[in-house]
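hi!! sorry for the late reply, been swamped w classes. u asked for the two structures so here they r. pasted raw, havent cleaned anything up. first the sequence of the first protein and right below it the tokens
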Amino acid sequence: MKRFPVIGLLCVSVAFGLSACSDDSSPEEEATQAAKDLCTDLTALKADNAKLKALNPASATKDQVKEAYDAVQDDWNGVKENLSKLKDAEREAVKSAAENLKKGYEDLPGDTTGKDALTQLQPQIQQLDETTTAASTRLKC
């Protein structure tokens, strides 16, 4: 079974119609959106910190320093918020996948063979594998 890195899973989720404004999004979609938002915020944080770093001490005004500092702080607040959302969304995605596997197993008829059980549970097993892999792999923006 091939394991997908987080970014691959994220791209696949986005490709299958991720809708950030949808009220009926799945936990996997919410984790994908949170990861995307976190990457955006990290990029902004890095860019604004570079602007702050690039200010010339000999000519920068206090207002310029404050403006650049405020931009960095705003970006950091976005990073903190989306990092929390990502952790919550990943936790919910793993929980949902584990519960789907449990429900699928509990719904098997009593006379199901091992072969048939594995065949029927394959989608839930795959979903749990992908979700746990994504949650345990470092975010790569």
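now the second protein. again sequence first, tokens right under
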Amino acid sequence: MNEVWKKPPVSLEAYQKMVGHEVGVSSWHLVDQNRINVYADVIEDHQFIHIDPERAKKETAFGTTVAHGFLTMSLLSIMSYEVMPVIEGTTMGVNYGFDKLRFISPVKAGSRVRGRFTLAEAKLRKPTELLSRTNVTVEIDGEDKPALVADWIGLIYFA
């Protein structure tokens, strides 16, 4: 079970007061070669820069294999579960998409990443539907530049 569901929920009013503020920073998540390989199998993208450490060392400027950008993006879910609060009365939340998603720096195999979340918008579209926009930066441990920046949109539904 995701940790977010174990936290006490916040009121809609309290959630909306978080707009414009950093909500939190997730724990570090290891992006090791095994995780990269499993992801490559799932999406059927076996480009050597992801799965062949020896060739990547010889033939790329990275000096090692790197994670798929979409693998890094997919970790936003677990990171958000650690950080973003559940709103009282929520029945479900769904991804609505991204207005912006940029892969700034490659995530080398063996790196750790974490997400930094700032709530940018939280407005009711209907009495039972909240549009939530979150600015996210995924940081790479020990690196100056982030792995990605995103303007992530979710829809939260109430009973």
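hope this helps!! also noticed smth abt the second:
The chain has a mean pLDDT of 96.
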